[in-house]
Design a protein that fits this description.
alpha/beta, Rossmann fold, eight-stranded mixed sheet, 12 helices
Length: 320
């Protein structure tokens, strides 16, 4: 009888999850186009003027989020003057990923390169946050001709002590992970989304409408949650493998990191990266937490503008 009850409960939770997925997708529909790449489709929101005289800006979000985390307020502000391409990483937001376990920054950088080729973007300023720091570094290493400048906001770049949470390891366990993702993750996660987002802003206060404005609850859909867990559980090994190559990065690089960031350590990541990369500039913000793009959008915008101006000056000098 207990077994029958458990099966019935799981079935009910699975139905509830399916209903929740439909509701979430109706509430937070895609905002851009979906471009076919190796292993899936990437959702790209293309904003701002198509000014060929200035470089476009590519913005890539971190873990447990989607392109909405880069759009408000930073992406929208930059798009007043520049072409801004906001990208959902493979498996997140409205981007798909056929093989969830294929989660490496190398794969994600390659997919993003394919999408940019499809959009005719051969060179850009790349802005990355948090986990996407590993991805920005990878783009600069694997596609140096594409990255005219790199802005890294509280980036993950190096291996760290400890793990990424037991539940992420459980989610990547065969059978059990998918079972949990399709039954309890959405109902339970809906209670935890707001407190989790608030903790990312600490010691700053999260804007009241942030969770909905950034479409964060899209993470609770089964495949997105599983993709996120795979990204996180394989990240440490990936950055350990690519970190020795960082001195090869030639793109002018700006790192902006708060010294009160309790999610990504400024010492382990940004200071070490700035020391390794020849053209890196590090800005440490006192008493600022993890969400640099929300806390200091004006500073980030100025640094992006400065990189664009430098790249334009260099290209003019090369032409003469």
């Amino acid at each position: 009888m207990i077994a029958i009850g458990a099966v019935a409960m799981l079935a009910a939770l699975a139905l509830l999850t399916q209903a929740g997925v439909l509701w979430l997708q109706g509430k937070f529909p895609p905002q851009g186009e979906r471009i076919a790449v190796s292993g899936g489709k990437l959702h790209v929101v293309d904003l701002g003027p198509r000014n060929l005289a200035t470089l476009p800006i590519v913005m890539i979000h971190g873990a447990s989020s989607n392109l909405g985390a880069m759009r408000v307020p930073l992406g929208d502000a930059l798009a007043l003057r520049h072409r801004v391409l906001l990208i959902d990483r493979p498996g997140h937001g409205w981007s798909s990923r056929e093989d969830l376990a294929n989660s490496s920054p190398a794969m994600q950088a390659e997919a993003i390169g394919e999408a940019l080729d499809a959009l005719g973007v051969s060179r850009a300023i790349v802005v990355v946050h948090s986990m996407a720091g590993a991805l920005g570094a990878r783009l600069a290493l694997d596609q140096p001709q594409r990255v005219a400048g790199l802005v890294m906001l509280a980036p993950v770049t190096h291996p760290w002590r400890g793990g990424v949470g037991t539940y992420n390891r459980v989610m990547t366990t065969p059978v059990l992970g998918p079972l949990l993702a399709h039954t309890i993750t959405l109902p339970l996660g809906s209670l935890l989304t707001e407190p989790g987002a608030r903790s990312a802003f600490t010691p700053q206060t999260m804007p009241e409408d942030y969770v909905d404005a950034s479409a964060t609850p899209l993470l609770l859909r089964p495949r997105a949650f599983l993709a996120n867990s795979w990204d996180l559980t394989t990240l440490k090994e990936a950055v350990a493998e690519q970190a020795p190559r960082y001195p090869q990065i030639t793109a002018p690089t700006v790192l902006i990191h708060g010294d009160a960031d309790e999610i990504v350590s400024v010492d382990i990541h940004s200071r070490a990266f700035a020391a390794a990369v020849p053209q890196a500039k590090l800005i440490v913000l006192p008493d600022v937490g993890h969400m640099v793009q929300n806390t200091a959008p004006d500073l980030v915008q100025r640094e992006v503008e400065a990189l664009i101006a430098t790249a334009v000056t260099k290209s003019h000098a090369a032409m003469h």
